[in-house]
Amino acid sequence: xxxxxKLVEAESANxxxxxxxxxxxxxxxxxxxxxxxxxxxxLAIVGAKVSYIESLDYEINENDLFKQDWRSRSKVQVLxxxxxxxxxxxxxxxxTGGIATLINLAVENITGYKLLAVVKYIEQxxxxxxxVYMAGANFLLTLxxxxxxxxxxxxxxxxxIPEIKAYLNGVDTPNMFGATTLFVKIIxxxxxVSAGLDLGKEGxxxxxxxxxxxxxxxxxxxNYRIRWRWLRYFNNxxxxxxxxxxxxxxxxxxxxxxxxxxxxxxxxxxATWWRSALLWRTFFSTAVVVVVLRAVMxxxxxxxxGLFGKGGLIMFDVSGVSVRYRLVDxxxxxVIGVLGGLLGSLYNYVLHQVLKVYNVINKKGKLHxxxxxxxxxxxxxxxxxxxxxxxxxxxxxxxxADSTCPTNGRDGNFKQxxxxxxxxxxxxxxxxxxxxxxxRNIFSINTSSxxxxxxxxxxxxxxxxLGLITFGxxxxxxxxxxxxxxxxxxxxxxxxxxxxxxxxxxxxYAVLGAASLMAGSMRMTVSLCVIFLELTNNLLLLPITxxxxxxxxxxxxxxxPSIYEIILELKGLPFLDAHPEPWMRNITVGxxxxxxxxxxxxxxxxxxxxxxxxxxxxxHNGFPVVDCGVTPPTGSPNGATELHxxxxxxxxxxxxxxxxxxxxxxxxxEWEVREKFSSIDLAERGATIEEVTVTKDEMEMYVDxxxxxxxxxxxxxxxxxxxxxxxxxxQVGLRHMLILPKYQAAGVSPVVGILTRQDLIAHNILxxxxxxxxxxxxxxxx
Length: 782
Prior knowledge:
Layout: E1 7-10, E2 15-18, E3 43-46, E4 49-52, E5 54-55, H1 64-72, H2 75-123, H3 127-151, H4 161-169, E6 171-172, H5 179-194, H6 202-218, H7 237-256, H8 259-270, H9 276-300, H10 330-361, H11 366-386, E7 394-395, E8 423-424, H12 426-431, H13 435-442, H14 453-470, H15 480-498, H16 506-522, H17 526-536, H18 542-557, H19 563-571, H20 589-594, E9 602-603, E10 605-607, H21 608-617, E11 622-630, E12 640-648, H22 649-657, H23 670-676, H24 679-683, H25 696-699, E13 702-704, E14 715-717, H26 722-732, E15 737-740, E16 753-755, H27 762-768, H28 770-779
Parallel strand pairs: 9-11, 14-15
Antiparallel strand pairs: 1-2, 3-4, 5-6, 7-8, 10-13, 11-12, 15-16
Helix pairs in contact: 2-3, 2-5, 2-6, 2-7, 2-9, 3-5, 3-11, 4-19, 5-6, 6-7, 7-8, 7-9, 8-9, 8-17, 10-16, 10-18, 11-14, 13-15, 14-15, 15-16, 16-17, 16-18, 17-18, 21-22, 27-28
């Protein structure tokens, strides 16, 4: 990993690299300055590093070698391929569950011993020493997480979910799923969560599951890859996409112990392409995760896991209360939904601005990133330790046992903190604990008098501030838990306000508040509903949870996109949305081709010199292959120009490296191709033209491109609207789409142009067609 990150600014025609931090733009500019032409070189921020972005080859490359390999597969090999798919899905679930267990055990024990030491100082009346110990421990844990991220794996910063969404959409995110990223994500998550920062391990677990899946699919890290013959089946982007989908669903399942919710999360939030076979494998992976978690929980009941007890693997169980509601209760439930939509959209907007401010702060490099992370850690420690002193001590309910109220351990619903015997501090119960225990306490049922209004208002205000300033620092972080904490606070406040006018328990109001804010910010409905049902273990919550989620999402959609879409746009990742803009129907793909540079074509049998010049002078990753003077089946006295297909840049470089040269211009035989190439060779990526050495004599030789050419590329007619082409491009998972002329005249090229992902991004189109920018506002209602 480079020590100095490079910010690459796109100027009018050239790309210049500058040794600047990637997050160094003014508040009113996008994170990346882009070339305002349709063919701009794609750049994006992956984690915290600027990288060149390319698309993935989800399309099946049907060249002669692929057809030969497919025809030669026996039934045993086909069954082996299917078996290996299920085996890898099993391993993804097994390893994700094991690592999630490791993270939970580490967090529970580190945080537990830290809090026990702090409580000991408090019991002795040594409050200052308690603060110094707590702040110092949090500072060191944050320092470890931040140093690992900043110095070794910038792509491990944040939750990783936006990059996973982009990858499954067809965007290659470099170094996002490497072994170093996986290691830093695991250790960094343990350090950041144990430090008491307002972040969760849920988002990082999704990234961890995806990293495991990617590494298994490719046989390990790039430098130490296992090249077993059976792994050749998965040496392609399509199968790796399916594995990463299994990994993301396993991560959600490991975070919430919600197998069905994990599958639905992958379907609703991260996956662009889906089919029934993938549904079964993702469900199988999440089932394995649940078995692993259950086995660990049973083992830990005997006290073999240190302080691990009611940690993140245990559900926030609210099944012990009877859910009774009448028609009048629909009103406060609807109010919670509206509040969730309004506050969720407001949270998205403010967080958007905070991230821009952080980009300015981080302008000077690594040291400032570390200082920002450590400053947030110190501020968090001051608030968590100091604010409980503002709350008044409350007497314990006489119906509670002495062992229940007050408590002095690391968990419990009635923490004594600085109060005398028989009294507890309700704000310390929420703040001086782990985030998981804070959620469990505020979700607690049959505790209508446990928390007063002042403590809940302080808790809500504090976590709003911490949630905004913590996300974006250089540590692995998730958004789920901070949003749950904020939402549960105002949900419980509304439950207090309703008092005797409602039949719904205050703990259930907290659950509904958390669900509403998540829907208002993340804009998920079905998966969130199932996750909360699996979290709370109460099916009777289903009707009102559905109502809250639908209202919150509808209200939030009226103001801005989801938080993950905002982050995708900030990072510059070229994500293709499911719904094209209405104004895209007013422009055709032929018009897009007109404002692009002329398409570069190659002959079916091409001179080596021409291939080398094309590769050195262009950055295109695909080239149409045409044959001139071909006699069509109907007969033509003058011959015709045939579009043979599309050849990838990687395959051209492979032909040059393999010295696939001929003295004369002729088509090769099938046996010649099989002797020189294999399907494994065609799956290799990453080679550059600079690595190829060609002599002067070889420059005058010829290369037969026909065996390496994809003979069935996706094509569209130049009269097709951009909106329709974008839907096709996204749903099929293409990297290139050829534009053909509506009328084929003699002597005219059979290809008008090539559409790529960058050509279909809305702001790129608007930069090439300024009149659409002025008129799109009036077209939105169409």
